[in-house]
Amino acid sequence: MSLRLVFVGPPGAGKGTQAKVICERYKIPQISTGDMLRAGKKAGTLPKELIDTMAAGGLVPDQAVIDLIAKRIDEEDAKNGFLLDGFPRTVPQAEALNKLLADRGSKLDTVLALNVAASLLIERAVLRRTDKRTGQIYHLKYNPPPPDVNPADLEHRADDHEEVVRNRVETYEKMTADLLPFYKKVGLLQELDGVGKVEEVTGRVLGALESIKK
What we know:
- The longest helix has 14 residues.
- By secondary structure, the chain is an alpha/beta fold.
- The protein is built from nine helices and eight strands.
- Strand 5 and strand 6 form a beta hairpin.
């Protein structure tokens, strides 16, 4: 079964975990525009002006991102579909994506949105710790480190501090304020509860995907 979908959700909603399950089940690639931009920068294939824009913390022009996506979805592993992660985030981007697919005689099958309350997202991130020796990630409330782990080796990453996390969540909410209603209006949006055990959320995600083919 082919599947072309956009997967959206705030930072910390567990989107990455669920995206992996979807891609393995449907044999489609996960296409992250952020990953593509970083890979292009590393490989030296991005124009200098884009690299300068990224270095300054600016937004890469929509057309540049669309061009990257166009090349990616034309690759062999995307012939039966793809999961877009991190794009679109605005209505103009969504319209550009629609045109790109229409030009190829294709269209999106669905847009999945994982919903998690901002307060829970902040709690998930702020209490997260990383063992600097092993890279193992713990959560002080839900998955604390075993007693034999030296607390001095636990690192609280800078991007997991409350002010930073709150800013990420607020930025996401502002950027998608118009996007979700846009997709809802055209009947593509499926909003799912992102709270619960990983397997429970996976069940909701797979159920939503199966329903669009019935």
